[in-house]
Amino acid sequence: MCVSNKVERFNLVTVTRVSFSFFLAIFSRFRQRRRDLLLVKGGG
Questions:
Q1: Taking the model in full, what pTM does it have?
Q2: How far is Cα 21 from Cα 15, in angstroms, rounded to an integer?
Q3: What is the distance between the alpha carbons of residues 22 and 37, in angstroms, rounded to a whole number?
Q4: How far apart (Å, rounded) are the C-alpha atoms in residues 9 and 2?
């Protein structure tokens, strides 16, 4: 029981970390694209 609980918690932490890094990558990419669009708008 205790071991299974530990494994469950570890899985939860892993899933949270993976989803967070995934969201961070998407967010940074979106921000970069937005900055590029702003630069194009300002330059053009």
A1: 0.54
A2: 10
A3: 23
A4: 11
